[in-house]
Write a structure and sequence with these properties.
single chain, alpha/beta, Rossmann fold, Dimethylsulfoxide Reductase, domain 2, five-stranded parallel sheet, 17 helices, 20% strand, globular
Length: 435
């Protein structure tokens, strides 16, 4: 029996780094300080594992060695004309870096799960810019919290506990005021001081109305998106009168009508507020390293997601080079999926095309995508069986610890990708020598 302290949780974008784990016989038997999602992962990660590499032959999976599986994966990627490399949000920054090198080597497209969730947030930030801060600054200074299109009590269970409503800060001892804006009364809305239930797909109108009110302009309508104008005036006054406000927005803005234009409006609203008080905005990122995947892609290519290397240099054009669009146009002829399950989340037509072509999956579990694959390479759980780095939703990098030993012979995502990259280079050299 041993105890490991100061462990970072590899579940959501909060990356809570105060966990205390009890280990017995190289298994996690107790989790202290973690939320329900955290405990479920640490206590149940070893279930339904893939423990041997699999290669599909004549429609059936056969267990093979890592060498044979890697050779088959490298063969698929080398022969492909336009391969897609997708996922990356549930693995380490080091593995993402290796994946970018591989994408460049084979002339493929590399895209993260941001393309399905907060891709519009990135576009909005590129359009308008963002006034932001760390979660630590929010915790110690903010007296007004706004959650818009987000339900952190369910999606990020410790966000409110660690950084906003249920935590006193060094400079903020009094109770903070909470505003929740959503199309339905969520669990988070139940705790709010002010809840605005707006009509679906009308976030943009409400945001622009608040901008007008903050600039002392009058609205010549009685209501906006089902909210009386007088109520919106109260909200605008509350925002202007706070000392430090923080607006957290989720996929309720990015995945509804308006998409990146909704984000343009949010960021412009915060910019307007900063002329009168102090206000910040922050997207509520989902997977534990989706922020890190975008960061590493930006460092190494200049672009945050949907990066196309088919011409030998990085190009970026969301809607053209993003995964869903490529799959719907049936342009890719092979795919490598790392730490993701797109078959369970992509549009049906996109998932069908993904499965119709040669597919390689690097994942610890036999997911829906892995069941469709031609090659399955089992990997370790990052933050449990292997270490690395991840970025919290506020762009703060945190270390992920190796807590227990992985099953015998199981490699990390980074190791697998480096081996595939080496094998791809070897095969390409052979082709050059023997055209």
């Amino acid at each position: 029996m041993r105890t490991v302290k100061h462990v970072t949780c590899p579940v959501c974008g909060c990356l809570c780094d105060d966990l205390e784990l009890t280990i017995k016989d190289e298994k996690v038997v107790k989790v202290k300080n973690g939320c329900a999602l955290c405990k479920a992962k640490f206590l149940g990660y070893s279930k339904h594992r893939v423990l041997k590499p699999l290669v599909r032959k004549n429609g059936r999976f056969f267990e093979v060695s890592y060498e044979e599986a890697v050779s088959r994966a490298a063969e698929i990627l080398t022969e492909a004309n336009y391969p897609l490399l997708y996922g990356w949000s549930m693995t380490s920054c080091e593995a993402v870096s290796a994946g970018i090198e591989l994408a460049e080597e084979i002339g493929g497209v590399i895209d993260t799960t941001s393309t399905l969730c907060h891709g519009p947030s990135t576009l909005g930030i590129q359009d308008v810019g963002i006034s932001s801060a760390t979660l630590g600054q929010v915790r110690h200074r903010a007296d007004l919290i706004v959650y818009w299109g987000s339900n952190p009590l369910i999606a990020h269970p410790r966000h409110m506990e660690r950084y906003t409503i249920f935590r006193k800060g060094r400079f903020q001892k009094e109770k903070r005021k909470l505003i929740v804006v959503d199309v339905r009364k969520t669990e988070t809305a139940e705790t709010a001081d002010i809840f605005l239930q707006i009509k679906p797909n009308m976030d943009y109108e409400v945001l622009q109305a608040l901008r007008a009110l903050i600039r002392d302009q009058e609205l010549d309508v009685d209501e906006v998106a089902g909210i009386p104008t007088e109520r919106l005036e109260e909200i605008a006054d509350t925002m202007v009168e706070c000392r430090f406000g923080a607006l957290f927005f989720g996929s309720g803005l990015t995945m509804t009508r308006g998409k990146n234009r909704n984000i343009d409006a949010v960021l412009s609203l915060v910019s307007d507020l900063n002329k009168l008080t102090k206000f910040i905005a922050m997207p509520m990122r989902g997977h534990f390293n989706v922020t890190g995947a975008d960061m590493i892609l930006t460092w190494q290519t200049g672009y945050p997601y949907a990066v196309d290397f088919s011409l030998g240099y990085p190009r970026y054009n969301p809607g053209e080079t993003s995964a869903v669009d490529i799959l719907l146009r049936e342009e890719s002829d092979a795919a490598l999926v790392v730490a993701s399950d797109p078959v369970a989340s992509l549009p049906r037509k996109a998932a069908e095309h993904l499965a119709e072509n040669p597919l390689i999956v690097v994942d610890p579990h036999m997911s829906a995508t892995a069941r469709m694959a031609d090659v399955v390479l089992p990997s370790t759980f990052v933050g449990i069986e292997s270490g690395g780095t991840a970025y919290r939703m506020d762009h703060v990098p945190l270390p992920l610890k190796k807590i227990v030993e992985p099953p015998e012979g199981i490699l990390s995502d980074e190791e697998i990708l480096r081996i595939i990259l080496s094998e791809v280079k070897r095969k390409k050299a052979e082709q050059m020598e023997n055209p």
